[in-house]
């Protein structure tokens, strides 16, 4: 096997990102690259489309066979099984405004119960913390027939799904999972806004969810 070369990978998952370096053997297939991205970023193989100069790469061919060389940049677009995300603000042109959620209903406050051991802000969750929350939520709400492999993504990935994405993955109970997740995002956004107002009293009230 030849020595690994350095390429750059830019993942388009609907949130602002910078490309990052990736050392890989050009004799590996695109499918294997997707598996490596899944292990590192949490996006499943089926949710990734890999492009080089705007052209899609074939999973069964090696990177070298498809013209990839050192210092090449690959674009990986996350499609989440082509599920539309209804959570983007109407008329918004910002890629950072993905999670737009209703206010928390005090009568159904998810924080009244024992909580999963994850960061308070779901947007910061890695894929393991998503799994921890998913396990907690399915037990808390008695949701059955949940396939954890369908949620192999980070917190920002969950933000993009919307209720349709949750229901696609969990037809019976996906809306409940979506509601719990969105209430947590709402609380995190409010906390961020209060902190911003405290630190910058004269700052604008506008803020971004990213």
Describe the 3D structure:
- This protein is an alpha+beta fold and 210 residues long.
- It folds into two domains: 5-78, Phosphatidylinositol 3-kinase Catalytic Subunit, Chain A, domain 1 (Ubiquitin-like (UB roll), Roll); 122-199, DNA polymerase, domain 1, CATH 1.10.150.
- The chain has four helices and five strands, in the order ββαβββααα.
- The chain has a five-stranded mixed beta sheet with strand order 2-1-5-3-4, with helices on one face.
- A hairpin with a 2-residue loop joins β3 and β4 (55-56).
- The radius of gyration is 19 Å and the shape is elongated.
- It starts with a strand and ends in an 11-residue tail after the last helix.
- Residues 5-79 form the Ubiquitin-like domain.
Outline:
InterPro entries: Pointed_dom (IPR003118), SAM/pointed_sf (IPR013761), Ubiquitin-like_dom (IPR000626), Ubiquitin-like_domsf (IPR029071). This protein has about 210 residues and is an alpha+beta fold. It has helices at about 30-40, 125-140, 155-170, 175-200, and strands at about 5-10, 20-25, 50, 55, 75-80.
